[in-house]
Design brief:
4-stranded antiparallel sheet, 4 strands, alpha+beta
Amino acid sequence: MAKYYVESGTLQMITDAEDARGAALWAMHSAMEQVLPVCPDDPLTPAEKNERIRQRGCVVLDGAIRISEQGFGRPDAETFDTVGIFVEWNQLVMAMTKLERRLKLVNP
């Protein structure tokens, strides 16, 4: 796994991923989990998420997610369309939800 510098709007993060697209998907997951219950065992309640957003501010993405292995603000960063990454992230979340439901039916 490589280390990637990810930035979009107010989001700046460093993450490990298999590739730049994986880093973009993880950034989307991080942004979305601040407002949605994306994991069944989400440790924060909606009230706790609201308080965290009030204290720190909500991460807001812009139209592109920029990924670099070299650092933030690089002109040679790989760029992904935010809406396209959101669609892909949503499809992955939906597939995981369906898989979890099927596993619960097989192993109640």
